Amino acid sequence: MAETADITAMRRAVALAARGLGATSPNPVVGCVVLDAAGQLAGEGFHQRAGGPHAEIHALREAGDRARGGTAYVTLEPCNHTGRTGPCAQALIEAGVRRVVYAVADPDPRATGGAGTLRAAGTEVESGLLADEAEAGNTAWLTSVRLGRPHVTWKYAASLDGRVAAADGTSRWITSAEARADVHRLRAGADAVVVGSGTARADDPQLGVRGIDGAVQPLRVVVDTGARAVRPGARVLDGTAPTLIAVAQDADAAHLPAGAVLRLPRAATGPGLDVPALLDALHTRGVRSVLLEGGPVLAGSFVTAGTVDTVVGYLAPVLLGAGPAALAEAGIPTLSQALRLAVTETVRIGPDLRVTAVPVPARKGN
Predict the structure, then answer these.
(1) CA distance linking residue 60 with residue 174, whole number of Å
(2) Catalytic site residues (predicted)?
(3) The whole model's pTM is what?
(4) CB burial readout 271-303, b (16+ within 10 A) else e
(5) Would the N or C end of the chain have less CB density within 10 A of its end CB?
(6) Residue 157 assigned ligand-binding role
């Protein structure tokens, strides 16, 4: 049974790790707390940006000599390799830390093994404390390592009867200003924001993060198969953040900035581009988390491809009765094949309700 002090320290490390969301890719978010030999806080830190010091280094620098004989709490197994920074396992050993408690084992074969190195040096090592909380906070990076593609969160805003626009196409604004502000929090935590050609035509979105101090602007991606939706002067082509326009290999994209064009194969079945190829291209560019803000058709293509990891729906207390539904064709012909979700959170955002859910494995016989 974990001691209260251990739980408190690790929970603080999880909270610290969250400060790095949106700024560390392709690295994970990690938090670290160091208590001295008497169990008092000596230092803490988090991984702030790729290429910069890891969480353990920040915490050890703050702790100084007080780390000797103390305990380090880390949300991810200390790394065991030299990349742009040195191995954190060795730094903990050199600092004289007596005990290391980490939450989640590192699945990256290039960095794993830190626990073994620590034990070989005589350091007491424990794992698994608050693993679920630490994993939830680092889900994007863990998904990218385990599946070889970015973690995808599909966000949509709809009326209570599931419409994302009225029958005449008007959609501004179904949800409240509070809900729209909350979306910028999601953007700030993502490496890339993805929309489709329908959204680009209807809204001319800028897709930047607003109202969040210190936010790193995500990569803006428009899936514009025929290269007809994004025109010169579009807001998504401004200098706020880098932009990619994903087009078919045979599309005429001469009117677009050459450096912004990403050519991809068309989907084998149905309209649009090959979704796995898009995600692979983004992963190659260091993207570990995608916020999918596209309309019903693009969302349907991601669901069909089996690449939606989290769903965040903002539901407004509004009824429309007609208009497009939140999700278009998604390769689900019958109820028995429905994508079942487990609700992980429901929160009131102003007058609206934010529902977060994740897919659950299909049970045999369903």
Answers:
(1) 48
(2) 56
(3) 0.89
(4) ebbbbbbbbebbbebebbbbbbbbbbbbbbbbb
(5) N
(6) yes
Which range marks the domain in which residue 79 is found?
1-140
DSSP per-residue string spanning 194-226: EEEHHHHHHH-------S-TTPPPPEEEEE-TT
Which amino acid, residue 158?
A
282 has binding-site annotation: no
Residues with Cβ within 8 Å of 228's Cβ and at least 6 positions away in sequence, in order, are 197
**Statement to judge: residues 162 and 129 lie in one domain:** no
Map residue 345 onto helix, strand or coil.
strand
* Residue 293 marked in a binding site: yes
Q: Which of 56, 77, 94, 329 is an active site residue?
A: 56
163-213 pLDDT per residue, tens: 999 999 888 889 999 999 999 999 999 999 999 999 999 889 999 999 888
Number of domains the chain contains: 2
Q: Is 331 left (phi over 0), alpha (psi -120 to 50) or beta?
A: left
Cα angle, residue 332 at apex, residues 141 and 306 outer, rounded to 5°: 15
Beta bridge partners of 247: 263
pLDDT at residue 366 in the model? 44
Is residue 77 flagged as an active site residue?
no
How far apart are alpha carbons 221 and 242 in whole angstroms?
9
Residue 109: partners with Cβ closer than 8 Å, 6 or more residues away: none
Give strand ranges (E) for the chain. 31-35, 41-46, 71-76, 99-104, 124-127, 151-159, 192-196, 219-223, 243-248, 261-264, 289-292, 310-316, 341-349, 352-359
CA 78 to chain centre: 21
Beta bridge partners of residue 349, listed in sequence order:
352
Nearest to 279 by CA among 265, 268, 258: 265
Residues 330 and 347 in one domain: yes
The reply to whether 366 falls in a domain is: no
